[in-house]
Write a structure and sequence with these properties.
alpha/beta, Rossmann fold, 2 domains, eight-stranded mixed β-sheet, globular
């Protein structure tokens, strides 16, 4: 139990220092979430804050939790001595869902027995495969219950990268539809009881629906309450990261999730001996000005770059020591407040640490001409989009008889930012042999649901005219809501199946895929089999209830999807047709996550011919750079010892690889023929 609380249930807040972020003060909110693009330091910020809270108020209990499928809290805390009042949980979404099903299987079965035309076996199969997003949401509901219960003075959450965090925060709306579908199954029973007994009292199954609905509404209320919840976006002073952070904050505003402060992590430190012509200082000074312009209504804080992974007691204890208000002259990027750029002498413009041309050691072999599908995968923020784009441009140069499609299935698309060209859900031609597309997974499934609803509406209008019975009215509502019982991730699988559609049409020969970060990619690769099972159940319903579910257009669409999924599943495990290139960076936490990804690929039977260690810092004159170079060399050696297929490709930091010209140059350096 909480040891010291005010009458409101919150820990007694201290007066907020003017030069410190409000979120560092324990008791400011009950639930504190850190989020942003992968690789920006969310885990470190969350862990550093949790340790700060726990040590500042030793008589109060705190919880540090992760909702990212690719957990890294334990990696971050490696070697650290945790305060006795800090609990750490890496939430297992699948286990949370298993417990939910075990606890409420009877209620779900009871609801099924009251369905209209669906029988017990039908609904049982649907519920086993559906519960859209409930695996991730159940873990989040657990956090919300803990926040409400008062067992902790505060809960700090390390979230998944942007796209999937936004989907998670939007799940209350999805679950409302799911509950509506279940409620439709008991509507006829409820009406019949009231008709023949004159009154209706909710039983256990209906109370379960009511209580679960109240839980969802409570979660939605918590996420929108600035007195209890706060979301802190973490960003870097880098163009691609800034662009994604802008989209994140805009989406949080639409969802009503409170945001007051933003952290700019890894800003160049002042007084660390960096020369005035250091490319880091120049680039970050410009980007800091852009960040300030993008977020005029928010308090911006910068955390200085540190020449080590923030792990263990000594690093995490001082993580927030250098935090500064971006509007202060001595804050991040040294000269962020100057109206004019930092003056740089032409003879030293790039400095010893940066090269205007890409520098790559041990380039990979160019993918074979017979390769149809090439994935780029890895932890968020490691440069998957950049390397995928550069590779697609190189393939278009080399294989003059092939059409290349560069596409993204990451919910937080960034192809447009990387290419410097507006990319959307329709293919955009970049040159004679290369096109690009950002597939709108949610839009694809929304369109399918719309077509299904229209077809069901027409069917029941005809049935009502001919039958006119009460059963038809209730059956109609159940039929309309069946699509809300589809499995989680079907939208993303439909997007991936578009590849097969393009192959069938012979529009493109080679597909280069920019994927979602590690945890969700692993899940995505497992989904085709799950969706195939759901389609089997759905087809069974169509055959069993021909009168009620006579939807030929949708049936044809789903049959086509089923065929494409079979082709996709066989394609994924064909090493001659499909390969996956892993992208990582030289940090200990990235190393641990990369090992997990390689293991998952081996288990899935997916061919991994290349490992790119990206963003390696060249040796330079600045003390910070020298220290980091030594550390990165040790991690690179571990990658070499771990990756069995070939020597890892080492890609050094350089001028920002943004736009077609620089990406083309990078693509030339990445591969040998």
């Amino acid at each position: 139990m909480s040891r010291t609380q005010t009458s409101s249930g919150l820990a007694s807040p201290r007066t907020k220092p003017r030069d410190r972020p409000a979120f560092l003060e324990p008791g400011a909110v009950r639930l504190l979430l850190f989020g942003g693009k992968g690789g920006v330091g969310k885990t470190t910020c969350a862990t550093g804050t949790a340790l700060h809270w726990a040590r500042l108020f030793p008589d109060q209990d705190y919880l540090l939790a992760s909702t990212d499928p690719a957990h890294s809290l334990q990696d971050c805390l490696a070697g650290a001595t945790r305060p006795p009042n800090l609990e750490v949980r890496e939430l297992d979404a699948q286990e949370s869902l298993r417990q939910f099903k075990a606890a409420h299987a009877g209620h779900l079965r009871q609801i099924a027995q009251r369905g209209t035309f669906l029988d017990d076996d039908d609904i049982g199969k649907l519920l086993d495969l559906s519960l859209p997003g409930l695996d991730e949401l159940m873990a989040f509901i657990e956090l919300a219950a803990l926040a409400k219960g008062g067992a902790y003075g505060g809960i700090i959450v390390d979230t998944a990268p942007t796209g999937h965090t936004l989907r998670l925060l939007g799940l209350p709306d999805v679950l409302r539809k799911w509950l509506g579908a279940l409620d439709a199954l008991v509507a006829k029973h409820r009406w019949m009881v009231k008709l023949y007994s004159g009154r209706h009292r909710p039983d256990d199954a209906e109370r379960f629906l009511e209580e679960f609905a109240a839980t969802i509404e409570g979660l939605a209320s918590l996420l929108a309450d600035p007195r209890r919840c706060c979301f802190v976006p973490v960003t870097l002073a880098e163009p691609l990261v800034t662009d994604e952070t802008v989209r994140l904050v805009q989406a949080l505003e639409r969802l009503g999730v409170p945001v007051r402060e933003i952290v700019v992590n890894r800003a160049c430190p002042v007084g660390a001996g960096c020369p005035p012509n250091c490319a880091d200082l120049r680039g970050q000074a410009e980007e800091i000005r852009r960040i300030r312009a993008a977020f005029p209504g928010y308090r911006l804080w910068s955390v200085p770059f540190q020449a080590f992974d923030a792990q263990g007691d000594s690093q995490l204890a001082v993580f927030w020591d250098g935090v500064r208000d971006v509007d202060r002259p001595e804050s991040a990027a040294c000269d962020a407040d100057r109206e004019s750029p930092v003056e740089v002498h032409p003879s030293a413009q790039d400095g010893p640490e940066w090269s205007s041309s890409p520098r790559v050691e041990h380039p990979a072999r160019l993918p074979a001409t017979e390769t149809s599908l090439l994935f780029f995968a890895g932890k968020g923020g490691v440069g998957k989009t950049t390397l995928a784009s550069a590779t697609a441009l190189r393939l278009a140069q080399e294989y003059r008889d092939r059409q290349i499609l560069l596409f993204s299935v990451d919910p937080a698309h960034s192809l447009s930012d990387c290419l410097g060209t507006r990319i959307g859900p329709s293919a955009v031609r970049l040159n004679e042999r290369l096109s690009a597309i950002e597939i709108d997974a949610e839009g694809e499934f929304a369109d399918l649901k719309k077509q299904y609803a229209e077809e069901v509406e027409g069917l029941f209008e005809r049935l009502t005219e001919s039958a006119g019975g009460l059963d038809v009215a209730f059956d109609r509502e159940v039929a309309e809501r069946i699509m809300d019982l589809s499995p989680p991730g079907i939208d993303e699988v439909m997007a991936l199946a578009r590849v097969i559609q393009f192959l069938e049409a012979k529009e493109y020969d080679t597909f280069v895929c920019d994927t979602a970060p590690t945890g969700h990619l692993i899940r995505l690769l497992e989904l085709p089999a799950l969706v195939q099972r759901w389609l089997g159940v759905f087809f069974g319903l169509l055959l069993k209830y021909k009168r009620v579910l006579r939807v030929p257009r949708i049936s044809e669409l789903l049959v086509t999807l089923s065929k494409r999924l079979k082709v996709l599943r066989s394609l994924l495990v064909d090493p001659h047709k499909t390969s996956l290139h892993v992208v990582t960076i030289p940090t200990e936490m990235a190393y641990a996550e990369t090992c997990d990804l390689l293991t998952a690929c081996r288990q899935a039977g997916i061919h991994v011919p290349a490992l790119f260690v990206n963003m390696v810092r060249p040796a330079g004159a600045c003390p910070v750079g020298e220290a980091l170079t030594r550390q990165e060399a040790g991690v690179c050696a571990k990658f070499s010892a771990t990756f069995e297929a070939a020597r890892p490709v080492v890609v050094y930091r350089g001028a920002s690889p943004r736009g077609l010209a620089r990406l083309t140059e990078l693509g030339q350096a990445l591969y040998c023929t």
